[in-house]
Amino acid sequence: MKPSVVVMGTSAGGLRALERVIGALPAVFSIPIVAVQHRSRESDLFATVMQGLVALPVREAEDKEELVAPGVYLAPPDYHLLLEPGGRLALSTDEPVSFSRPSIDVLFESAADSYGPAVLGVLLTGANHDGTRGLARIRAAGGFAIVQDPKTAESPEMPTAAIAIGAADRVLALGEIAGELVQRSNG
Amino acid sequence: MSSRSGTYGRVELPAVAVAVGERREVALASGSSGAGPRVGAVADPDVAEAADRPPAEEPDVPGRISRTVVSGESPAPFAGVPPLERLEMELLLEAIYRHYGYDFRQYAPSSLRRRLKKRLEAEGLSTFSALQDRVLHEPAAMEGLLRDMSVNVTGMFRDPTFFRALREKVVPMLRTYPSVRIWHAGCASGEEVYAMAILLEEEGLYERSRLYATDMNAEALDRARTGIFPIARMREYTTNYQQAGGTRSFSEYYTASYGAALFHARLRENVLFAQHNLATDTSFSEFNVILCRNVLIYFDRNLKARTLRLFGDSLSSFGFLCLGRRESLRFTNVEDEFEEIDPKERIYRRNSLPRQGGGPAPSRATSGRGARG
Questions:
Q1: DSSP letter at B126?
Q2: First and final C-alpha spacing in chain A
Q3: CB pair distance less than 8 Å for A143 and B80
Q4: I want to staple B163 with a disulfide (CB 3.0 to 4.6 A). Which of A59, A168, B129, B244 is the partner?
């Protein structure tokens, strides 16, 4: 099944990992990408920095914004980012999950609920366990889960935890993930 | 308060259980309840039609109902959730609405589902049908659900730059008015209301201001009325206050004791806390400023459009509307009626007289809906 959305999650070391993956995608990549990167409340410049590094259009998500491809949507600081059925984004200020807002689990679980098998989840470098539960939910709902090989991760904890609970369909080196995404985007 | 407070002033609010019951009456019978402060409640559609007239001066007179309901967008289903569970969730929302009058049917689906799942876990139940049974038969369970459903993450001077922008861009305009009316819609436990009172006090406007702070959750309003907040957060609030352009020492505004910060009574002298549900109630007065920050993110697009229409109809000419930092009027039914005063802080100003008539709004909000996914 061709995915209708790619969701990505990362914390420590995330900017460089996101740059490596998203930067290697063609500018016409046909599936919208929605990403959570843990960061502080004040870091307003993340989207601007990212945009300087990759060809795909990057923006910080607005509430109820419609997903359009090609495009990368980043969770704004201090908000959870969720996917809604019907192809829109939603924000929430509910309490942090795993000490994180935005939380990767919140994004991933909403993606699994909203799109079931049409979700492609990618969990990258990170220093905590956020995202592992959500990735497992993506798999359980029939979606496909890619985890960065911990050996290639700046912080291996998050990918290691996901692999340990059996949440990965495929474990790939950082440099191989973009190729896998392109292949899967072709159906 | 002035003579206005007769029907409306310092009535002891019933405990939540009672408020929930009262709420039910409001939903099933018609007219407003006399027991607690409620504003803008219109239960009977016929009464609502009859009340269709220009905004009333007094908030306890039912204002005109906003008939603008942008409809026609049937919600897309949760593709990753089993059909039976989707049905059970719908039935639960329907049951809550019909029995208690709280309408969550047009809430943003993903956050709504997340909160309901959380309640399910807290109750130790495994299906929404079981939760429905419990919520219908045990008011305490309904209270718990209401708590989960209320937007309660708030703080004082959250987003300090927003409050700075208020001082710099909104206050100068308010100074030219003989009196100032402000509506905090969805005020939760009231932190932002106290912050606003402090700001107005420092700008010399508090004396002539009246703040209406509303929320659907009576329990949250009870807390707001006390003016007591956790002392543990004062350090954060102090920093925010300073960054927001505060001109005094923040600790002047409260007394610390027993691990709590009690804010001075003066800060709520000109504040009226009252129950109002944006999903079901109507306009109840006319305001110079409406603050509704990070509340509309919990509504779906239809309900957001309805609420924005309500705000549009409740603002005076050149009145200000303040939204959360990641909310906007882009692609909404009222976009053309507002001017952006501060794009970053999401402060808008009504650009003309309030729309008359209350006819159907342009259906921009329903155009181009997401076919993807």
A1: S
A2: 6
A3: yes
A4: B244
pTM listed for this prediction: 0.84
List pLDDT tens digits, range B287-321: 999 999 999 999 999 999 999 999 999 999 999 99
Mind listing the domains of chain A with CATH numbers? 5-185 (3.40.50.180)
At residue B21, does pLDDT exceed 70?
no
A66/B369 CB distance under 8 A: yes
Cis amide leading into A102 (omega within 30): yes
**What is residue B66's predicted lDDT score, i.e. its pLDDT?**
32
B320 DSSP β-pair partners: B289, B349
**B contacts of A46 (beta carbons < 8 Å):** none
Give the closest residue to B326 by CA, choosing from B345, B306, B351, B352: B345
Q: Using one digit for the tens of pLDDT, what is the confidence trace for A116-171?
A: 999 999 999 999 999 999 999 999 999 999 999 999 999 999 999 999 999 999 99
- Here the tokens at position A113 are 């609920």
Mark yes or no for CB contact B373/A94 under 8 Å. no
Residue of chain B nearest A137, judged by CA positions: B80
Residue A68 has pLDDT above 90, yes or no: yes
Spatial separation of the C-alpha atoms in residues B205 and B173, rounded to whole Å:
11
Candidates A82, A88, A116; nearest CB to B79 = A116
What domains can be seen in chain B, in order of their start residue? 83-149 (no CATH), 160-354 (3.40.50.150)
* Residue among B289, B274, B293, B275 at smallest CA distance from B205: B289
Answer whether B115 touches A (CB < 8 Å): yes
Sheet of strand B338-342: strand arrangement = B271-275, B209-215, B180-185, B287-292, B315-323, B347-350, B338-342
| Residue, of A138 and A52, whose pLDDT is higher | A138
Neighboring chain A residues of B111 at a CB cutoff of 8 Å: 82, 90, 92, 94
B122 interface with A at CB cutoff 8 Å: no
Average pLDDT, chain B: 81
Please list every residue in chain B whose beta carbon sits closer than 8 Å to the beta carbon of residue A63: 296-297, 324, 326-328
- The answer to whether the CB atoms of B114 and A60 lie below 8 A apart is no
- Say what percent of chain B tops pLDDT 70: 74
Active-site residue set of A: 11, 38, 130
As a whole number of angstroms, the distance between CA B38 and CA B101 comes to: 14
**pLDDT band, residue B37 (cuts 50/70/90):** low
Q: In whole angstroms, what is the distance from residue A12 CA to residue A147 CA? A: 15
- Identify which of B257, B239, B167 has the alpha carbon closest to the alpha carbon of residue B203: B167
Cross-chain Cβ contact B111/A82 below 8 Å: yes
Higher-pLDDT residue of A179, B331: A179
Of B72-86, B183-197, B280-294, least confident by mean pLDDT is: B72-86
Question: Following CA atoms A183, A184, A185, A186 in sequence, which dihedral angle do they give, to the nearest 10 degrees?
Answer: 60
